[in-house]
Structures
1.
Amino acid sequence: MVDTVIVEAETPAVSAVSWPAIIAGGFVAAAFTLLLLALGAGIGFSVISPWSGAPDITTTKAALVGGIYMAVTAVMASALGGYITGRLRVRWTRAPLDEVYFRDTAHGVLAWAFATVMGAALLASAATIVGSGAAANPGPTANNSTNDITAPFLDRLFRPDYAALTGGTGQQAAGVFAGGRDLAADREAARRILLSWRDHGRTEFAGDDRQYLTQMVAARTGLAPAEAQRRVAAVETDARAALDQARRIATQLSFWLVAAMFLGAFAAGLAATEGGAARDGR
């Protein structure tokens, strides 16, 4: 008598993580984010521009509008990437229904995370501006003040009194008053004094800094010492208000950035669940 042994063929194990679907959804989310950011930068809504340069946010109202657009962008792009991930992922035939829901949600969040990490190079400059404040990213020199919040105040400080400056052009005469010292060196010194509030937590100029600025302005512009002192005081007041405004805007944008990331992750997970349900015909 011959014994017959029946061996059941085991179904090959299927990985719980479908990386091709995650990568595909992440690329779609990142590309759609770039598209929406470019659109927002064109119409003036976007806080983060895909092109070089700092965001032009000067009021809390503009920060609110930009923050809302940033959140909407994160939700739309993440939802699209998550849905595509859910539709493209490998089908799990033997997994319980609650496990399928969990895996779909996890796939959406992974696609969002992949898109976020992949776009880190694009968002790095904007995140730095948002995290440290608009006043924390000045130009490296006085001649490169595109992103320097102190530039207009330096212009006001060293605006020459052409009625007092005689003998040649205003700048040449100013050089005589200033003992031949380079204007760029004086502007750089004044810029560091203006930014010393941020570095040392002060709310006004130190006494010796104010006196030094007054002497520098008087020598550079040809103003009388009393007039130079009034100009320094006026610039000090306006610069303090501008720096306080920059800090408020930076704080507001930081909260919006965090909110946009949380909303993006939630939208990606929810959309991936819907995509997986459509994939399985549930």
Note: Residues 123 and 194 are 28 Å apart (CA to CA).
2.
Amino acid sequence: MRIDDESAGWTRFSSPASNERDAAELQELYQDAFTAWRKNPIAKRIVDITTDYCLGDGLAPNAPGMTGTFVDRFWNHPKNLMPVRMDELSDELARAGDLFLTLHRNPDDGMLYVRPIPKDRITAIETLPNDGEAEISYTETRGAMDTITWLSPNHPAAAEAPAVMLHYRVNGVVGAQMGESDLATLIPWLQRYSRMLEDRVRLHWRGDAADPLSLPGRGRG
């Protein structure tokens, strides 16, 4: 990984994958999808429908015995609150195409705490030399010189680490480690549709302004 001198603040995404987008493109796609979700009601509705379809009225894992007891404590722990958190995680996966979660272990009771990391802060993914799909570590960049390395559960030292990172992706292509947003192919068309509506509103506004009989308080009879 290195800092791109020509674009201060940008970090070149480090990946051996052949079909991976570069860092600037990954950042742009992530921000475009996030902005569309915030400002465009059609984009937001698409993500909402996806989450509603995937989660329905809610879901909860279960297992027998002590495993089930631990899972229930983890799922409903005040620092996790997974029933509440699932909607935002599903939305993020649809928006970003990737979900990066850190699991932090409490050494006193073994409880795990979940914390999501935004996709645009992950600047490198390391895999096993002989298996490009076996991810073993992730680099999170919080500033130009501030980086954190998170171990994957696949890493040989993961059992001793105080925290590990999980990576889930959707809409991935062969030869790329990052996924792509559900909105990625729709954003250009949503922008065109928005411009068309704006032009139509301006056209009607100019037409009304040019016709004094159409102004408020003026009748045509």
Note: The helical segments are 23-39, 41-55, 65-76, 82-96, 187-210.
3.
Amino acid sequence: MAEADALASPGVDLALVPAFASLPAFEEKAPTFAENAAGKALHYSRIEKGLIFADDSGLVVPALGGAPGVVSARYAGVDATNSQRIDKLLKEMRDLAGEKRAAHFICAIALARQGRALAVVTDRVEGEILAETRGTGGFGYDPVFYFRPLKKTFAELSAEEKNRHSHRGKAFRKLFVALSSML
């Protein structure tokens, strides 16, 4: 939530859905990030009042057929840690070099109200997967995702740098443009 608050436009107040853990869960099983984001936003907007936004994001490595993709968080198993997911990714990429290490993060954000989709936005950021981790910030695959324009992994970026350049930051900015046109 802290990341979303930092990305929010001035005057936009974000809040978690009350008692979220007690609500019926939405099962993410769509083949695309946008479909998963829209499914979550629509599902929870039928239960709760107001504008509901939901995102789905992950890492895509074309040389691995798009993996980890929409199962990025479950890539090494449902209860796997970030380290275990990174270890699995690096093991699968150990024989890949050069352009075969290209990757991108994708973020899709959907906005819904009362079971009606109002907007779905997506964005991405290009990078490559390093052979070993660097940095201590961020989460998920950030320690191995190298962002060439800043010559750092996402785990080496400050929060401000990451928000400015990341897939999620870019998608949030698109969402708030769409939202401002609705108000």
Note: The mean pLDDT is 91.
